[in-house]
Amino acid sequence: MPQPYGDAMSSSFDTVVLDVDGTLVDSNYQHAMSWFKAFRRFDVTPSLWRIHRALGMGGDKLVTEVAGDEVEQRHGDGLRTAWEEELGAYLPEICAVHGARRLLERLHERGCVVVIASSGKSDHVDHYLDLLDARPLADAWTSSADAEQTKPAPDLLTTALDRVDHGNPVMVGDSIWDVISASEIDLNTHCLLTGGFSVAELEKAGAAGVHEDLDALWTTLNPLLMARRH
Prior knowledge:
Layout: E1 15-18, E2 25-26, H1 28-41, H2 48-54, H3 59-67, H4 69-90, E3 95-96, H5 100-109, E4 113-117, H6 122-132, E5 140-142, H7 155-162, E6 169-173, H8 176-183, E7 189-192, H9 199-205, E8 209-211, H10 214-221
């Protein structure tokens, strides 16, 4: 039976807040290329590895993180528009992470409250919900329009949780930015390696557990789940 990395035996929960990009849909490398092409439109050429390391942040934070304050001040809005256009061309290529739909089904069947917390554009989120056929299984979801600040600020998570009747929530994500934002509101985070961050990096950020895939994640979460919806 697959085992999680790190100290994953945290307290019981009845609500799961799920990140989308890199967690439920395998989109991180499309995001990296979309940002790279967007920067190139403005004659800015950050290394792809720097862009990849910033994925999980919202676009309002990523430009400064990758290219600095001056680029944000001069081109920030234009870069975000260009990224959205570039990513639109990749959307048909993006696939669900293996086991994503099954995880949603398992959580729903066990009576867990499921919140999909994405900082993506609303049309992208709609596409992912369709890809996963997630609407019948999720109690609520978010997009970038629902938070004043995106990760690593916790706004998106608090907005997501405000939309459901929750008791003891847990976060599932794939980046250190997920862990940092969740820790701001004392939320435990279980992480996947699908985001390209190492076990050591995720543990150092404070992840309660790091898992190779969604089946390994479920092995840990299943015995800790307390049904809330009947």
